[in-house]
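Sample intake sheet
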Amino acid sequence: MPSVESDALRVHFNSFTERLAANPDADLATIRAMLEELHARSAEPTDVTYAEVNVGKCAGIVCTPTKHTARGAVLYLHGGGFVGSSMHTHRKLGGHLARLLGAPVVVLDYRLAPEAPFPAALDDAAAAVEWLLGQGFAPEDIAFAGDSAGGNLVTALAVRLRDQGLPLPAAIVAFSPWLDLTCTGPTFETNAASDAFVQRPVAENMAAMYLNGTSPTDPLASPLHADLRGLPPIYVAYADQETLQSDSERFIERARAAGVDVTAELSPGMQHVYVLMAGRAPEADATVANAAAWLATRWGKQ
């Protein structure tokens, strides 16, 4: 059974969904304000410091553990449907990951759609990689991580780097990734009643704002449709109550068929991006700890 703490995430998401249903014509500013409330779901981590810096073309927050024991750094790209959330909504999650990993986590404040549609966020992420390289980190000591839309972006970024013949990260962590912007995965239907947050009409609207006319099957917009050969090891954590469950499952199947080393973690009874309950729900803490332990074995393996 889900913990009492994790049930709070459902309550929060239900409130979000109910407010959208009551105000179907809510403007983007209202939706963004709702998404900014997500930071309250995470508890403040201990033994971490924060610094706002310029990361390539964007602002970012560097989450640095007081016990710096690992050799690498993580570039973290937040979720929010490509149109909302920020480095502030995901600062605490980045801090929990940094503390567990013993390495800095850089939460990037990439540009959002519709003002900056595809591929602006990818461009910002690529510039952030260049910034990390400029800080002295070798490619094999850099990992990518992200949730929901951010899980899409970190995977697409690796595809883009591979296609450009550039060095790849040591590893990728994707929490509840949104990997198919066609929004046709079967769990959009079968999990519609259990997912308190992501429903197909909202997803389709966010995808349209991000794509701005680009095909939803473009491999850099929907990594599920990409050639996945040669990608680095990937950790995919997802939940059986989310409508994006089949995005993860189809991606895992395709990636493994392409020869990619994939580690999968399915959390029963959990909601979309349940890791945002880090520090409050044992299920979230377990997944973040598992991802950190997995990442710690990947530094310098290229």
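Comment: The first strand starts at residue 48 and ends at 55. DSSP finds nine helices and eight strands in the chain.
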